[in-house]
Amino acid sequence: QVQLVESGGGLVQAGGSLRLSCAASGHTIIYYDMAWFRQAPGKEREFVAAISWRDGRGNYADSVKGRFAISKDNAKNTAVLQMNSLKPEDTAVYYCTSKLGGAKDYDYWGQGTQVTVSS
Q1: Mean pLDDT of each 10-residue bin along the chain, 119 residues long
Q2: Distance in angstroms (rounded) separating the CA atoms of residues 81 and 88
Q3: Which residue, among 56, 61, 53, 55, has the nearest Cα to 94 in the 3D structure?
Q4: 3-state class (DSSP) for residue 34
Q5: Quick one: 104 exposed, middle or buried, by C-beta within 10 A (0-12, 13-18, 19+)?
């Protein structure tokens, strides 16, 4: 059974940093693209960042470029989202997700972790 478990969320002041982790079990992430999405109250879930299994390159939503960095540690079967220079508008529940490289849709999702940025 595939599971993704996020951790590292919390309350931080604007300008601060948080590091989210996503621990995968039930599959090895070596051949999986990993991504983070977020959902703020009253808003739809939106893409934040993704990392390719093939070359390890990340791509980011414009709203987080230059502030967030996604990485994956295949040996630890973990994906990480480093979030710096946080803004109140980054407040949301953050979800980790994965898909087999080359697949169209993300099919495994974690339960989410709350990030709250105070002004």
Answers
A1: 95 98 93 97 97 94 98 96 98 97 92 97
A2: 17
A3: 61
A4: strand
A5: exposed
